[in-house]
Amino acid sequence: MSKLLAEKFKENTGFQTVVIPNFIEKYNSPVHFQSDKTEILSVGDMNDGVKNFSGLIEAFSEALKINSRLNLTIIGGGPDENKILHLIEKLNLKNNIQFLGRQNHEFVLKQMHLCHFYICNSNNETFGMTVAEALRAGKPVISTRCGGPEEFLHEHNSLLTEPGNNENLSESILQMTANLRNYDADKIAAEMEEKFGQEIIRKNGWNFFNYSLF
Asked: What radius of gyration, in Å, describes the C-alpha atoms of the chain?
């Protein structure tokens, strides 16, 4: 649960809540990653009104005109999947966008290690699990100011954009690509371990148990 969701819950019900951090998993097997292009990843349901994948594709297309050495991998499925695939074809991006459809969680966690950075272009998120998983893999993130992710995003691990602003997103893609070496993968991953690792979850879970009893 995020602080944002806790606040909304209190507004709607009047009940106070205790926020227990989500446990963020990591992929534990060795992953060899090497690419001569900048690899970008985005994961989510193909519900365009929420996730705005069409906006991401349009922004990526504009960034590609300036930097041709960009690849985007999209994982997910849903009601707007055909719409997204049609847009990729319409913008002639089949050579630069890899659409992998729905995949299991382990596959997604591994894919986090096979990119240079992650993008969340959602209009709203109560937490942003895939954003957190990307950071746990040591990857910097571009995210919209969509609610939940802002709780754990800052200038040392991310760039923030405005929802629905394709120009802003396109500029951020180019900016992050140019400045990838400024992000410390080990520090990014370690910070997420401190916030959402097993030890902190155990501690907060025990505190919640005591809080519930008394």
From this structure: 18
